[in-house]
């Protein structure tokens, strides 16, 4: 295993916006002894999470911590298996009957956690809600092309799209596509109407929404701030776990849904505990305080591999870490400046030095396992002389001073310090500014930054999700395009890629757009890191980890020492 090759934190100045977290030095790290195991059923699985979830509302956020929990509560129409292949979920079959019409047959005999029967009306209510401007969902871009949900029968719907949209099945597999009961959605809207003091009834609101226009917009504006009061506190899905308790900042407890219709489970309860400090999570894993630890950093991988009662699970990922530029600020509106920086950054060195060899250097914004990736692209290679030449021809021939914004992820901070050092070699002085996660997202969405490092996971495993949100000019800010990048040719190709029903035509469009994004350099595509999971194999077994980073509990069972 390649060890960390550099530790620049002591050599270069990092401007910390927030105070450092408290020390983990006093955490007990004693490990359990070895022993043979046998599988048992029943009991509680404890999972240590690095971050707290934002909300249980599938339309309320697009963060990974929330997605990890919500995917166990809500079933989507279409599932992704561990290989990211699309498989039946609440829809047993689907097909495009016309370029702009998709037909879905729904699973019968399914009940919600509340005991209500699942029908096509719940599908309609869920999709209509995510596209409602009053909800103002961050994930609306996944479904905004759906113009109408036509209820054909109790267990059949037609989704009518504004234009041909080939990756619709992949989008429906996203956790944001989890189907909520119509009853829960109705209660959430009614609570919002009541809180706003509106004299519009629930049915009148739905009629206004269908019709659109100024009257609807007025009511939508009135209730928008109150949407999510119910759906953010309660859940009503059909998946194998249901919400039992939530203590924000501390834990979320899910209990087994006894009437789950899609397979047996070997556990009674799952508790997701928020343990931000890596060493604290590892200590809890060693001692059996938790059974699973998520987001293991690569520096801790060997410790878990060598533990008496722990094992490391690794999965290649469809995540891309990137160095982004704010192209609405000088000098990052100059392509020569961006290209110079791209040539100065050695992506392989970041993989070996920061990530201990876990992962691969990025050749484009898409990971190799994402549909639409093109292995024949001409990527930008590290070349300091070429970087210096490009900068000398740019608007900043003598270099410049700038800032690089990061969150508090240690690997991201280390990557930033490496970039700080690399750019100093070509005359660019970089100050690294660190913020906590929520503030970082708000500030970069508002365009307050110069440069930033962020990651994007193509959870649908389709190029549309991996490129459209990050680089289409419709998505400035929070939806994904924090570089504020606008290129009419790229926009047109991204539109072509999502609307062309022909797979070969889609691939051609995405190959061309990837090359443009490499050449234009609105970002430096750094790496596709591996996802790492720690498991206490003395307590649990058959834990899965997919390329999206989801912990798969479908086959989880317990082990006890003989």
From TrEMBL:
Sequence ranges assigned to domain Solute-binding protein family in this UniProt record: 85-476
Signal peptide start-end: 1-19
Source organism per UniProt: Jeotgalicoccus nanhaiensis
Family note: Belongs to the bacterial solute-binding protein 5 family.
Designated name of the protein: Glutathione ABC transporter substrate-binding protein
Key words of the record: Signal, Transport
InterPro entries: Peptide/Ni-bd, SBP_5, SBP_5_dom
């Amino acid at each position: 295993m390649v060890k960390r090759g550099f530790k620049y934190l002591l050599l270069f100045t990092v401007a910390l916006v927030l105070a450092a977290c408290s020390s983990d030095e006093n955490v007990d790290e004693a490990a359990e002894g070895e022993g043979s195991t046998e599988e048992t059923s029943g009991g509680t699985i404890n999972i240590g999470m690095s971050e707290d979830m934002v909300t249980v509302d599938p339309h309320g956020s697009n963060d990974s911590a929330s997605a990890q929990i919500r995917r166990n509560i809500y079933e989507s129409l279409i599932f992704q298996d561990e290989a990211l292949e699309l498989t039946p979920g609440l829809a047993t079959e689907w097909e495009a009957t016309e370029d702009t019409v998709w037909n879905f047959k729904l699973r019968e005999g399914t009940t919600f956690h509340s005991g209500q029967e699942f029908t096509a009306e719940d599908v309609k209510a869920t999709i209509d809600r995510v596209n409602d401007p009053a909800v103002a969902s961050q994930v609306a871009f996944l479904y905004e092309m759906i113009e109408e949900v036509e209820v054909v029968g109790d267990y059949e719907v037609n989704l009518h799209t504004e234009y041909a949209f080939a990756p619709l099945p992949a989008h429906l597999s996203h956790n944001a596509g989890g189907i909520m009961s119509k009853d829960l959605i109705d209660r959430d809207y009614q609570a919002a109407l009541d809180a706003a003091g509106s004299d519009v009834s629930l049915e009148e609101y739905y009629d206004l929404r269908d019709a659109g226009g100024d009257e609807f917009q007025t009511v939508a504006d009135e209730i928008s701030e109150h949407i999510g009061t119910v759906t953010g506190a309660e859940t009503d899905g059909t998946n194998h776990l249901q919400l039992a308790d939530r203590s924000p900042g501390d834990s979320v407890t899910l209990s087994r849904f006894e009437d789950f219709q899609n397979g047996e489970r070997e556990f009674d309860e799952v508790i997701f505990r928020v343990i931000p400090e890596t060493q604290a999570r590892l200590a809890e894993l060693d001692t059996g305080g938790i059974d699973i630890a998520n987001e293991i950093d690569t520096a801790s991988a060997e410790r878990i591999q060598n533990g008496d009662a722990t094992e490391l699970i690794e999965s290649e990922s469809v995540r891309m870490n990137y160095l982004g530029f704010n192209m609405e600020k000088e000098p990052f509106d100059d392509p020569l400046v961006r290209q110079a920086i791209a040539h100065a950054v050695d992506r392989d060195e970041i993989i070996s030095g920061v990530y201990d060899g876990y992962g691969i250097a990025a050749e484009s914004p898409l990971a190799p396992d994402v549909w639409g990736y093109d292995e024949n692209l001409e990527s930008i290679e590290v070349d300091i002389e070429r970087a210096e030449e490009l900068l000398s021809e740019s608007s900043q021939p003598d270099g410049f001073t700038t800032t690089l914004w990061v969150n508090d992820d240690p690997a991201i901070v280390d990557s930033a310090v490496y970039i700080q050092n690399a750019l100093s070699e070509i005359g660019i002085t970089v100050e690294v500014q660190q913020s906590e996660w929520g503030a970082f997202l708000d500030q970069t969405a508002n365009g307050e930054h110069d440069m930033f490092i962020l990651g994007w996971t193509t959870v649908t495993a389709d190029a549309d999700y991996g490129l459209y949100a990050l680089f289409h000019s419709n998505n400035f800010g929070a939806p994904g395009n924090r570089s504020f990048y606008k290129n009419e040719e790229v926009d047109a190709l991204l539109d072509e890629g999502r609307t062309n029903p022909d797979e070969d035509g889609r691939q051609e469009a995405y190959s061309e757009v990837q090359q443009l994004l490499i050449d234009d350099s609105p970002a430096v595509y750094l790496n596709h890191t591996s996802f790492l999971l720690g498991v206490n194999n003395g307590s649990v077994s058959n834990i899965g980890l997919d390329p999206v980073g989801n912990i798969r509990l479908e086959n989880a069972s317990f082990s006890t020492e003989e």
